[in-house]
What does this fold into?
Amino acid sequence: MSQESPRLLRAAPYLLFADLGAAAAQYERTFGFSREYTGGDPPEFVVVSRDSLPIMLRRAPGGAHIVPNEQQGGTWDVFFWVRGLRALHEEMVARGAVIVYGPIVQPYGVEEFAVRDLEGYVLGFGEASAK
It folds into this structure.
């Protein structure tokens, strides 16, 4: 009896938001994600994705303290390796994204830029640089 080897198929960051409706709209309108799933009425949970890469958005319970990684000394809350970084940057600028930095080529050979969402989460995007 042959048993299939375990394999991870997909991963999704899980982010909390005070205003889930505004967050989901920003991810769709500004960052180019599409809504895959909405749970609850009113919505409590939304899954958005772009190029089959999902992010889970959850309405934070009242009074929850939301602290994005940048506020704790980190850089990003989510990082995507991409193809066509410059075109993606131009698209997001045209859609009104708040650019945190870049595009810049990092010392480790990745060209990157980052955007910030309404809650303060930072999404990073990088592509191997053709030095």
